[in-house]
Amino acid sequence: MNKSVQHDHPQLPTETEPSSESVYLILLRQLNYEARLLDELRHKEWLELLSEDVAYWAPLATRRLRNEKTPAADPYSGFYFNDRKPHLRMRATRLDSGMVWCEDPVNHVRHLVSNVEVFDTDDTDEVKVYSVVDLHRSRLDSKSKRITYGRVDVWRQTDCQWLLTRRRIDFDHNGTIDSNLNLFF
Amino acid sequence: MDMRALRPFPADYHDYVNTEEGWVDRRIFWEEEIYQQELEKIFARSWHFIAHDSQISKTGDFVTTYMGEDGVIGVRDKGGQVRVFLNSCPHRGNKVCYADSGNSKNFTCNYHGWAFGMDGSLLGIHNEHIYEGDINKADWGLREARVSTYKGLVFANFDVEAPELDDWLGDYRWYLDMLLDNEEGGIEFLPGTIKSYVNANWKFGVENFIGDSLHAMWTHDSGAKAMMGGEPFPPADQTDSYHGSANGHGWEFGTDGIADIAILGQPEVIEYYESIRPKMRERLGEMRAKIFGSLASASMFPNISFLPGLGTFRVWLPRGPRKMELRIWTIVNKNMPDRIKQLINKGTMLTFAPGGTLEMDDGENWEGNTQTNKGVITRQGKLHYGCGTASRIDHPEIPGIVHHGQYNDANQLAFYQRWADLMNADSWEDIPQRHEPRFAGKPTR
Q: pTM of this prediction?
């Protein structure tokens, strides 16, 4: 399989069985490290954790009735994010430009990462990782927001490190509850 | 203590909006009393966007939305007509539909199982035999609104006295045709509704799109540079750019045909529009073919906005005077190749969606504009809307109230003038016509 193919509709692999405990610990450490890089706005270092073919996307949530018979809308038709590395680099460059007025003074951000599960996949270099994030964000006076979301990641082992190669973000809100999504999830 | 005794609310809403001196009273962005009046005098009488035909194309397809704070269902009935009903059961008042959209033959209230058809009629009641003739079901259907469409956009209005949709739009149809009718086949909405909640007065979103091109160069500097490979917005061109306004609807625009499309960051989309430009000239004339795609933004009274060429379309639903719900869609021309539609979708999501590089700059500004008025001293002040007030012109081709130079407060003031006209009026006869219509009773294409 050519891992560098760019998909408009990124796919997640099927999990086979729970990973070894050693891989689990490595990934847990990796997720915590990643969260700290994001909280400390170390965007360049964060980008280095992403593979060149990374896909990072957040589909829209729609309230549908359980017995709705018509097919759900294509989740990639409307989305919050459907980014590849150049887009993520562009966002990071913009955030670091000093010209994003609503990030100046900076927001206080904490990614609380929890409910981590790691599974092997058919690709021996890749694991599928579930996690839940409780994101706290505050700026200016007492204004603070908590956004929760689930993530499904694929992390790939390379010669020297583990790289994030897929991330689907499922927000637990039917609409965006903050005035912007000016950050990485 | 009655604060009104200290500072009375003017009875004439034109006292909140001074088009001569160019200022607006801050209280219209904060006060609950004024907001309640807006719901009665503006939202209960205006034509509201419900859906585009393409979103509810089959029998039983429905969406739920709001007209002011009144929840409604828009559904395509068996005869192919869109019907719009209050989303509230006439028994105890609960919503009869909690989904955003879907396909259904009927809508059943969760509380007592009253079921309503696609025509709004009360079809049946759970354990109906208990009523033993206590109800005439024909009298207890869902309340229905008037429905009218313009080139695929479906609007509804609960006011039986309100003018027809074509008259409500008036000369603005000349502008709207650039969005809806620039190519054979018209437009369609792509699936997916993006919602976001902003703690701002609804009018700040509308007035931003109706005329505030000035903010783009400062607020969106980082976003524009991100999308255009480090290039800032082009220099402000006041020589061949305009504000156009009709019946409170407005469109500010340049004439280079390309600047808004370029913000999508998709060169193939620019090429596509250039390839259809000759036909666009035949359809809409030289002037409108030059305007479409330029640096531009537009709003329809009271709360619809879009960026022609960039493909974002949205409504600002009021949620009290200090909060709004924003709903966003991507629009494309129906006859575009799928690839172009996808690229436009990508471009709009990357720019004017809650995760977009330009949209993200706006929300906090509008929250700040609104929330500072919590201060009683702050709220006593006026806001300056005097930019370009002396630039009014008559243009041989551009209809409505036209001002020269797109960096201007003219459309914003015209919007607030229309706002005051409706707020004051007890009947439609009281609402003045603010310009000489060129297309009354006539098609604009």
A: 0.94
